[in-house]
Write a structure and sequence with these properties.
The chain is of the alpha+beta class. It contains 31 helices and 17 strands. It has a 3-stranded antiparallel beta sheet. Strands 2-7 form a two-stranded antiparallel sheet. Helix 9 (172-190) packs across helix 10 (193-202), helix 10 (193-202) crosses helix 11 and helix 26 (561-567) packs across helix 27 (572-578).
């Protein structure tokens, strides 16, 4: 049943960028990036900025003397701390306080009503000021979200949904009810508002443990020991009390009084699963930005497909909204874009290409079969914010991102839903082993949502390719290649004697997801098998015999091309060439390993094959698998010349190699009713194609309830 609600005001909503804004797909949690103002969370910086000892004005003395519903018995030192925070927020940060007050106006009547309905002190209306500045879209550096700054786990405990589709921590109505329930529970636990507020900041478990360890039952006694509580929690209650006194004495302190009538009334309208919210907004003649101000909890322009949700619309738009929901097919789709499946496309491939998780992609397209026929139309949900979306590459696109190559500088990656060590390693083109080592992790266990992990070798914009010398440019013209089914950047690059990075840069592509069947590629420089100049360059050099395969390797779950090459002292391009250009690995595949040119430690420093007399030497690679660019002349000759033959690895080397391979663990899983291949793969953080290979499954539709699956983990 709908009820009237007051309109709330958010930070200025985004404006869709011109040109490519209508074909954008979400590929990250850009709408959940930390944006909390520093004065709300960086207590250490606040304390550095505090100017103690300033004389109080008569107005400040009057504000400090005022009493609220919650009685705080403070000693002289504690009163001094409240005084300092009051001066900080009313003088030093007066502009921030003004912003928070105007932002809070639409929410204050509802918060006051909910607190009263739960028999909570009205003073708690000041709590969102020190949590988020009454910002419904606020996110802290540690992942707390919304006006009341719930962590995901705590939000779910009190009935809030936090997933790929929605984040109800951002819903000011649902989150206020959840906060009232949580505060009620905390007061029942501790029987004291000082401790309850400290527990709201640090967690009830932390405060309970500190009380047990110290034997203290008074918050201010506990706060005197810096070893017991973090600085933020020790100063949390004085900061709350200072802001409360400001709120209770706005006119006395020279602030503009609050308008308790701000904002129009809203009406709740129940929307079935999978409702096109953008189309609903258009039907109500509302810009998407305005609709999102009323409904900040939605993370997509499509509502969750498996649940009915309440949508907030102005009272005057209620009947229009209901008419739309009765016949949504009468309106054009706006909240999703369509993608046409190519030959060989799978749900997993489309998910990787669009950035939409497999489970959610299948959820939105539940009526489609497990195996996609060519030409099948697939719906992809658009992000509600439009931030950090990228155009879907189905052909030449003016919005295509610049190609990236790996650098030696590490970056940080924030763990999002569905991330695993293997998936993060694949995303950034590093080995699982290197990623584990960079984070001092012993095994590829589950990652904590919202945590940060270090990725060795950060993506950076690729430098423009050096222009070839005029003579070589004439001898080595560019060629074109039409992508066939099963081909990869590595196989095509090996075919034409160029590096995958050069091929991607020449076609303005960033990753393997941009490679589509039937697409015409420009092959830069020398085309070894297509251009006539390449054989002539190769003929000018001595032709050593091809390196024989000296060993083989069986691919295990979690293996990457770079990791296998590195463990065997090889360049990944040598392994690709020795296996017919194949650079996609599946567990169980057997790889031929070519003869080694040097010990692994010597690979990076080893010079390339000597070039013609007078030609400059290529620069030695500094990062494994990413050779530094050579001058134009020597690069062309070096690519034309095959690698020299080396001796086969010794038995001792092979034994050492086996010892370095990570031991894999496996578990058995019984397929339940309704289980899908994608759902099981997501549950265990594995690739669906690997799951199929381990269990000799030919298609995703072959699963039967009660059957046993073997699942490997590294």
């Amino acid at each position: 049943m709908g009820r009237y609600l007051l309109l709330f005001v958010l930070l200025p909503a985004f404006l869709l960028s011109a040109g490519c804004a209508d074909k954008q797909y979400d590929k990250s949690n850009a709408d959940m990036k930390a944006n909390l103002e520093p004065e709300l969370w960086d207590t250490s910086q606040i304390l550095k900025n505090l100017q103690r000892g300033r004389p109080l004005t008569e107005q400040e003395k009057k504000a400090l003397a005022s009493r609220g519903a919650i009685q705080f018995d403070l000693d002289v030192k504690e009163n001094e701390e409240v005084q300092v925070f009051l001066q900080y927020f009313s003088i030093d940060k007066r502009g921030s306080m003004d912003t928070w007050l105007r932002r809070a106006e639409p929410h204050l009547p509802y918060v006051r009503a909910v607190l009263a309905s739960y028999n909570l002190p009205p003073d708690l209306i000041a709590l969102p000021f020190i949590e988020s500045g009454y910002n419904t879209m606020a996110y802290s550096p540690v992942g707390a979200g919304g006006m009341w700054q719930f962590m995901p786990y705590t939000g779910r405990r009190f009935g809030l949904t936090v997933d790929w589709w929605v984040d109800e921590r951002r819903d000011p109505y649902k989150s206020t009810v959840a906060a009232a329930k949580y505060l009620t529970k905390l007061y029942q636990m501790f029987g004291d508002w000082n401790l309850a507020l400290a527990a709201y900041n640090a967690g009830e478990g932390k405060i309970s443990r500190v009380m047990a360890a110290s034997g203290q039952c008074d918050f201010f006694d506990i706060a005197k020991d810096p070893k017991l509580l973090k600085e933020e929690t020790r100063h949390y209650v004085p900061k709350f009390l200072a802001v409360l006194k400001i709120f209770q004495n706005l006119e006395t302190l020279g602030f503009k009084k609050v308008n308790w009538q701000a904002g129009p009334n809203l009406k709740e309208v129940p929307a079935p699963g999978g409702t096109d919210l953008a189309a609903l907004a258009q039907a109500c003649n509302m810009p998407w930005e305005q609709f999102r101000e009323y409904n900040p909890g939605f993370r997509r322009q499509i509502s969750p497909p498996d649940m009915t949700v309440n949508v907030y619309v102005p009272v005057a738009k209620e009947q229009v909204a209901l008419a739309f929901l009765q016949n949504p097919g009468n309106y054009p789709s706006s909240g999703a874009q369509t993608l046409t499946a190519q030959a060989g496309d799978t749900w997993w491939a489309i998910a990787r290409r669009t950035g939409m998780p497999v489970a959610e992609l299948r959820q939105l397209n539940a009526s489609l079969p497990e195996t996609l026929p060519p030409g099948q139309t697939v719906r992809v949900a658009l992000s509600a914010s439009g931030a950090d979306n990228s155009a879907l590459a189905e052909g030449p696109d003016a919005c295509a991102p610049k190609p990236v190559v790996a650098s030696s500088k590490p970056i940080k990656h924030r763990v999002s839903k569905g991330d695993s060590v293997d998936s993060v390693a694949r995303k950034y083109g590093v080995s699982t082993k290197d990623l584990l080592a960079a984070n001092k992790m012993k095994h590829a266990g589950r990652l904590t949502l919202g945590s940060w992990i270090v990725v060795p070798g950060a993506p950076v914009p690729a430098a423009p390719a050096a222009k070839p010398a005029p003579a070589l440019a004439e001898a080595a013209p560019s060629a074109t290649h039409t992508v066939a089914k099963g081909e990869t950047f590595g196989s095509i690059a090996a075919k034409y004697g160029v590096s995958p990075q050069e091929l991607m840069a020449a076609n303005n592509m960033r990753s393997a997801k941009d490679l589509l069947v039937g697409k015409r590629l420009t092959v830069p420089g020398k085309a070894a098998k297509a251009a006539p100049a390449a054989p002539q360059l190769a003929a000018a050099l001595p032709q050593p015999a091809p390196a024989p395969a000296s060993a083989s390797y069986t691919v295990k779950a979690g293996d990457t091309l770079h990791a296998i090459a590195r463990a065997n002292g090889l360049d990944p391009k040598q392994v690709v060439a020795a296996n017919g250009g194949k650079d996609k690995l599946r567990p169980g595949d057997k790889l031929a390993l070519p003869g080694k040119t040097a010990a692994p430690a010597q690979i990076a420093a080893a010079p390339q094959t000597p070039t013609a007399k007078g030609a400059p030497q290529p620069v030695a690679a500094k990062t494994f698998g990413q050779p530094a660019p050579a001058p134009a002349a020597s690069k062309a000759f070096a690519q034309a010349a095959p690698q020299p033959t080396a001796a086969a690895p010794t038995a001792k080397q092979q034994a050492t190699e086996k010892q370095t391979k990570p031991a894999g663990k496996s578990v058995n899983y019984k397929v339940g009713p309704g289980d899908t291949l994608w759902g099981i793969a997501k549950k265990f953080n594995v690739d669906p194609s690997s799951l199929m290979a381990w269990n000799n499954i030919k298609s995703g539709g072959a699963l039967q309830a009660g059957s046993q699956l073997t699942i490997h983990s590294q």
